[in-house]
Amino acid sequence: MRFPLQTASLRQLVILSFLLAMIPVGVLMWQSHKALSGLSRFATSEAESAVISVRRAENMQNLVVDIERAVRQYTVVKTDALARVAQSHISNQQLSLAQLCHDLPKLSECIQQQADLQQLAAQFAQLTGTPLEQLLQQIRMRQQHISQQIWDLLEQRLLNQQKLVQDAQQRQAWQTVALVLLTLLLVLWASGRVAAPVKKLDKMIRAIGQQQQFPDGKLEGPRELSELGEQLRWLSSRLQQLEALRLILLRHASHELKTPLSSIREGCALLTEQLLGPLNPKQLEVVMLLNGSADRLSQLTEQLLDYNRLLQQAKPELSRQIPQQLLQACFADHALSLQQRQQQIKLDCQLSSIYTDETLFRRILDNLINNAQAYGAESSPVWVKLYQQDAMLVLDVANNGAPIPTALREKLFEPFQRGTTPRFDAVQGSGLGLSIVADCARLLGGHADIVDVVYADVCIRVRLPLLEEK
């Protein structure tokens, strides 16, 4: 049964699931009809039996009265006609009693009443006076007892009928619960047949979007979803090929640019220093512009190479580091640009050592300090905080300046995305700085965000897991 379900289409699976879920409902309806029909037949039979028993008891009570009347009349006027009438009443009473005793074997006084009736039939012509009255009274009292027993038996049968109905109701309730649970299990199974491949499709899409390893194995489920899984697998393979081509192109283009760019920068430096001859002011201005453009192109090339190396780094190389040394070394590299804009670093380092990748952590620091220096207000401090929060290592780099709109905050961490705020230095941004920060944080198992703080206009927060040496 498993194989056809795997190759079935989504429509077939939905229809089959609906039919399977309807089976317990149909069984429940059939069981209910069967139980109600049985109870109806039983109630009808019991009602008919009760009516017959009540009528028979009333008839026998009336016959006893007729017997007494006929026997007494015979004792006064002894005629053959009265004797036959009395004998006929006694015979009818015996037949009714015999039928009653057969239908209701639990009646305790049937045998004694039959014996009394036989004695009366045989001796009513000879008995007179007190013996006859005692026999008639005994027959009458026993008939009253028999009638009372009939009513007691009817009440008992009514109680039994009520108990039977209650048992049927309880049994029907348990069957209903069991069949509802079975229906629920079938619905959950059917939904799982659809939800499981959909969940795996979601993992495939996330793996493609986050550039993770694509899940192995063929997607099992409805035919349409299985075909969609194969298309996603083809798309993942195609994107990996395009990514590999992009990296190769980026690596070669960046490498090939460095050699002629170095020659251009050296030539511009020679012309600027006027080692090849004096330059007039206009020529010197043009050379200065060429020199600035060469520096800008050199910086963009270095960023592209740095981003390419970051993409190729698959696993961090963790080691024990002293954060104060990393921070001070980074501040020293950016000291000149900070001094030109009269910006000071306000450091708050609360950790004495961290276990991380030195290269990735330094890239995060370099890009965040460069970002704060370039976009921060002149003569305004740059706040750098390193502390522990719960089980995370938190790095905050904040500065004053134009706040970043909430709608642009996530977009700025994408490659080649720049904000609307202009840089205050002479370099035009490439849009790779925050992207490198986000990718480095991701490689270290964390993430980067732009958050609001009370002491600065802009704050970029990097959260990394607080790792320990193994």
Automatic annotation (TrEMBL):
<protein>
    <recommendedName>
        <fullName>histidine kinase</fullName>
        <ecNumber>2.7.13.3</ecNumber>
    </recommendedName>
</protein>
<dbReference type="InterPro" id="IPR005467">
    <property type="entry name" value="His_kinase_dom"/>
</dbReference>
<keyword id="KW-0808">Transferase</keyword>
<dbReference type="Pfam" id="PF00512">
    <property type="entry name" value="HisKA"/>
</dbReference>
<dbReference type="InterPro" id="IPR036097">
    <property type="entry name" value="HisK_dim/P_sf"/>
</dbReference>
<keyword id="KW-1133">Transmembrane helix</keyword>
<dbReference type="GO" id="GO:0030295">
    <property type="term" value="F:protein kinase activator activity"/>
</dbReference>
<feature type="domain" description="Histidine kinase">
    <location>
        <begin position="252"/>
        <end position="468"/>
    </location>
</feature>
<keyword id="KW-0067">ATP-binding</keyword>
<keyword id="KW-0472">Membrane</keyword>
<dbReference type="Pfam" id="PF02518">
    <property type="entry name" value="HATPase_c"/>
</dbReference>
<keyword id="KW-0418">Kinase</keyword>
<dbReference type="InterPro" id="IPR050351">
    <property type="entry name" value="BphY/WalK/GraS-like"/>
</dbReference>
<dbReference type="GO" id="GO:0007234">
    <property type="term" value="P:osmosensory signaling via phosphorelay pathway"/>
</dbReference>
<feature type="transmembrane region" description="Helical">
    <location>
        <begin position="12"/>
        <end position="30"/>
    </location>
</feature>
<dbReference type="GO" id="GO:0000156">
    <property type="term" value="F:phosphorelay response regulator activity"/>
</dbReference>
<dbReference type="InterPro" id="IPR036890">
    <property type="entry name" value="HATPase_C_sf"/>
</dbReference>
<keyword id="KW-0547">Nucleotide-binding</keyword>
<keyword id="KW-0597">Phosphoprotein</keyword>
<keyword id="KW-0902">Two-component regulatory system</keyword>
<dbReference type="GO" id="GO:0005524">
    <property type="term" value="F:ATP binding"/>
</dbReference>
<dbReference type="InterPro" id="IPR003661">
    <property type="entry name" value="HisK_dim/P_dom"/>
</dbReference>
<dbReference type="InterPro" id="IPR004358">
    <property type="entry name" value="Sig_transdc_His_kin-like_C"/>
</dbReference>
<dbReference type="GO" id="GO:0000155">
    <property type="term" value="F:phosphorelay sensor kinase activity"/>
</dbReference>
<dbReference type="InterPro" id="IPR003594">
    <property type="entry name" value="HATPase_dom"/>
</dbReference>
<keyword id="KW-0812">Transmembrane</keyword>
